[in-house]
Amino acid sequence: MITTIIKRLSTQIKLIKLEKEAYDTYTFKFAVPNNIKWTIGSYAHFVCSDLQNGVNFKKNLLRELSIMSHPDENFVGFTTRIRQNPSEFKSTMLNLKLGDEIRIFKIGNHFKNIETDKPIVFISMGVGIATFRPIILEHLKTSKGSSITNINIDRTGDFVYQQELEKLPEEKLRNVFVTNRGDLYNEIGQCITCKDNTYYVVGSKEFNETIRDFLLKNKVSKKAIFLDK
Fold first, then answer.
1. pTM above the 0.85 mark?
2. What is the DSSP string of 95-133?
3. 145 and 186: one domain?
4. pLDDT tens digits along 121-172
5. Are residues 76 and 130 in the same domain?
């Protein structure tokens, strides 16, 4: 029953490229079917099977992941960590071959209305930066004045999208990559001196709440803080 429902709700997408993005980190890119649309900052539910040939749906095959691609790019993609002893979803994904198909459905967005008329501070942990990549690309195309400070923490020091982002125009985008919480708070502390900033945070539940509390403690308005949740 559940397999039939998931097949009806979802769309098959074909793997066209697999890239090693950083240490233990991979980006999966899929051809975009005509019926799939998304906005910048979206997430989607991915099933790592085409559910064909008698394969039944189970929760272990499902993940909610940020869409790292801009709608104008010719693919829909996501980036994920795949370490030793991975989950069934991740091990299945890593064993896919070009041309294999998985399923996508239930596309949503936690950051629908980003205020681009004010300075923006993005704060992310690890692959959480995937949410911000298409937003940054859109901002650079359309924004007339406001700037983005993009702060990412990754203890490995091998940062996702670092080379790509550092090639973008510096007058609109300031990238900051740190490996520890002390440096992270120092960088956020520098941003707090600008009272017009709006803050967008993507990471684990603990990370999001800790950053929110730090911002509130330093007198940033609650209305200027947006969490991925």
1. yes
2. T--TT-EEEEEEEEES-----TTS-EEEEEEGGGHHHHH
3. yes
4. 999 999 999 999 999 999 888 866 678 999 999 999 999 999 999 999 888 8
5. no
